[in-house]
């Protein structure tokens, strides 16, 4: 009976995509943040996924997913000339976070589609479990 | 003792069908969970090939030789035929991942239907046996 395992795999996928959406939300929320605890403007964060083997189907290993690391982008900051800004440097240039809102929106759409795909797996596994239980209704 | 179910070809075939369908569904779940994992390759096997091998009673290459009736046989499902699906993804993305959302979604629905068909056939066969038993007890 591998239905509980199907649910385990789908839940690892959902957890990973949810974390990715959380990071996208913080990237968008902080797209104009010029001060952070580490100093300097906010840096874009992204999750890196890794396959994690969970048992076998015949000779093939089943793979859940796990977040290997949360990577902080080292891309250069965006700069704007705003001499009146309190965080402007001597030349009047302000460094803004290296967050591209368009890129974040595309990633958000992709993450929510992937989350939905995992929900579809859960739904299919539930329907299969129900039909297996139906075998018991012999009369 | 006479066993009504292990001697029944229909129930045996459907039993194999149910376990292969749920194994395939587990791999489809793996592929969908790893939709965004760099370097992940689609994992699948040929359901039709595995089913054919099960029906014809063909021994898989990993079947252990037994010289005594009490010898244990390893898991017969250890080897599964490789996928020959014409929809096998060919294009990999920049990150080395080749999972196709459309293909996996289609297989998810198809495997679910296969599972439900097998379980319905199994139920019909068990109903027949049940009615035989009931008629005999009258």
Give an overview of the whole structure:
The complex is a heterodimer of chains A (139) and B (138). Chain A is of the alpha+beta class. The model of chain A has no long low-confidence stretch (mean pLDDT 91). In chain A, the strands form 2 sheets. Chain A has a two-stranded antiparallel sheet with strand order 1-2. A two-stranded antiparallel ribbon of chain A has the order 3-4. Chain A has helices at residues 3-29, 101-134; strands at residues 45-57, 60-72, 78-81, 93-96. In chain A, strand 1 (45-57) and strand 2 form a beta hairpin. Chain B has one domain (9-65, 73-136). Helices cover 51% and strands 0% of the residues of chain B. Chain B is built from 3 helices and no strands. Chain B has helices at 9-33, 47-55, 101-136. Chain B is elongated and about 70 Å long. The mean pLDDT of chain B is 81. Chain A binds chain B through residues 1-3, 5-6, 9-10, 12-13, 16-17, 20, 48-51, 57-65, 110-111, 113-114, 117-118, 120-121, 124-125, 127-128, 131-132, 134-135, 137-139, and chain B through 18, 21-30, 32-38, 40, 43-45, 50, 77-80, 101, 104-105, 108-109, 111-112, 115-116, 119-120, 122-123, 126-127, 130.
The share of residues in extended strands of chain B comes to: under 5%
pLDDT below 50 for ≥5 consecutive residues: which ranges of chain B? none
Task: Report the oligomer.
Answer: heterodimer
End-to-end separation of chain B: 23 Å
- Mean pLDDT value of chain A: 91
* Quantity of strands of chain A, as a count: 4
What is the helix/strand order of chain B?
HHH
| Inertia-based shape of chain A | elongated
Give a count of the beta strands of chain B, DSSP E runs of length 2 or more. Answer: 0
Structural class estimated from helices and strands of chain B: mainly alpha
């Amino acid at each position: 009976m591998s239905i509980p395992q199907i649910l385990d795999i789908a839940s690892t996928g959902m957890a990973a995509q949810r974390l990715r959406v959380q990071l996208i939300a913080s990237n968008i929320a902080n797209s104009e943040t010029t001060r952070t605890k580490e100093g300097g403007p906010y840096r874009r964060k992204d999750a890196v996924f890794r396959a994690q083997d969970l048992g076998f189907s015949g000779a093939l290993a089943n793979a859940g997913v796990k977040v290997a690391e949360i990577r902080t982008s080292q891309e250069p900051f965006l700069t704007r000339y705003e001499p009146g800004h309190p965080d402007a440097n001597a030349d009047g240039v302000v460094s803004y976070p290296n967050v591209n809102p368009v890129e974040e929106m595309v990633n958000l759409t992709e993450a929510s589609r992937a989350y939905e795909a995992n929900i579809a797996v859960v739904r299919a596994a539930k329907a299969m479990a129900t039909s297996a239980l139906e075998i018991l209704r012999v009369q | 003792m006479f066993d009504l179910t292990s001697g029944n070809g229909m129930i045996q075939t459907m039993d194999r069908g149910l376990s292969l369908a749920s194994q395939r569904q587990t791999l489809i779940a793996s592929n969908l969970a790893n939709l965004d994992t760099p370097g992940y390759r689609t994992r699948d096997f040929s359901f039709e090939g595995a089913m054919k091998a099960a029906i014809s009673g063909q021994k898989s290459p990993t079947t252990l030789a037994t010289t005594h009736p009490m010898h244990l046989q390893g898991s017969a499902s250890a080897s599964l035929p490789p996928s020959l699906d014409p929809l096998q993804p060919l294009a990999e993305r920049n990150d080395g991942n080749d999972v196709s959302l459309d293909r996996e979604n289609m297989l998810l629905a198809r495997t679910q239907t296969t599972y439900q068909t097998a379980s319905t056939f199994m139920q019909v066969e068990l109903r027949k046996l049940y009615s035989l038993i009931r008629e005999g007890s009258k």
